Amino acid sequence: MPQRKIFDxxxxxxxxxxxxxxxxxxxxxxxxxxxxxxERLVQAASLAPSVGLSQPWRFxxxxxxxxxxxxxxxxxxxxxxxxxxxxxxKAERYARLKLAGLDAAPCQFAVFCDRSVLQGHGLxxxxxxxxxxxxxxxAVHTLWLAARAEGLGLGWLSILDPATVVAALxxxxxxxxxxxxxxxYPAAEDDxxxxxxxxxxxxxxxxxxxxxx
Amino acid sequence: MPQRKIFDxxxxxxxxxxxxxxxxxxxxxxxxxxxxxxERLVQAASLAPSVGLSQPWRFxxxxxxxxxxxxxxxxxxxxxxxxxxxxxxKAERYARLKLAGLDAAPCQFAVFCDRSVLQGHGLxxxxxxxxxxxxxxxAVHTLWLAARAEGLGLGWLSILDPATVVAALxxxxxxxxxxxxxxxYPAAEDDxxxxxxxxxxxxxxxxxxxxxx
Lengths: 213, 213
Fold this sequence. Notes:
Chain A contains 7 helices and 5 strands. The first copy, chain A, is an alpha+beta fold and 213 residues long. At the A-B interface, helix 1, helix 2, strand 1, helix 3 and helix 5 of A face helix 1, helix 2, strand 1, helix 3 and helix 5 of B.
């Protein structure tokens, strides 16, 4: 095994492009995914770091029409409640935002953290047990980037009541819900976040988030 | 602005290599980082997704020797307590693991989530407020990959008492501690996790984490 791997400036430039063109996608084409895509992306996700090498991520692909309907209903209820929390111009802007991709995306999946996982033997999470959930978030991001590199878009739905989603998906009780995702070919590509294009929010200067102590 | 960006198979292969060669590094060379490295990496991290475009990540670079000593002491205390939780062969293996890189790494930083952030106007986190912390984890992973592409290694320390670290770093009370990190040139490179090489744990077959519903 060669125990060295160097990445050149050409790759680094492309990596920056990948980060720049990765979007949280809400509008999808209905084209199906090529065979083997989900398996390949979960394989990439499994290269993510995890606390104590615990790999607690669990991917639940939701194919049943009734389960999908339940998730859509949960989203619509929660989204209406969230909209009610805004007023004036902000409420108008919120109402115009497209926040789900549930209608068109060919693939939907939920991601869980198996909090009962034995793998890793508890290493590294005695004082910060939340690192187990964080490990799953790292895997989601890995999948996200691998998907974008294939021309696929991912959308993360968080406007959901976790308890209702969990009940609909019939998973072990020790699995903690992290998020619900739509995956498919994006209707459009962009290097600017949709929320920035929609006038909801702008990105801040990265220098402003650095503090020295 | 061209609104299309395609990544070729050569880039995808290199991306897989990046994911494969990204390690959680605990043994560093003492060489300093090139000037501008931390700013450049935080800029890359700021391309990460965040709920409602809230960008709640805050990077605290720890340069003061007394603050670094406090963090090292916290680690040693917590690590000894964690070791006491294992017995027999597992305790012996634990004692042999190198779990910090605090001695040699030229750069140390803590990462926080500003839970009082107004950016994003609360979008997307009414039912799942934990997505704000998750956004910070996504930024950490982005920085991790960008660092590895430059030949730098990152180590995530989670065997820490958050309250003591937070007190030592003198940050706003609304900032929630996510993790503490060592950054520098790795003493060695590898395509296999250190915990696997040390016989602590092995990675599982990715197919086993997929469920269909």
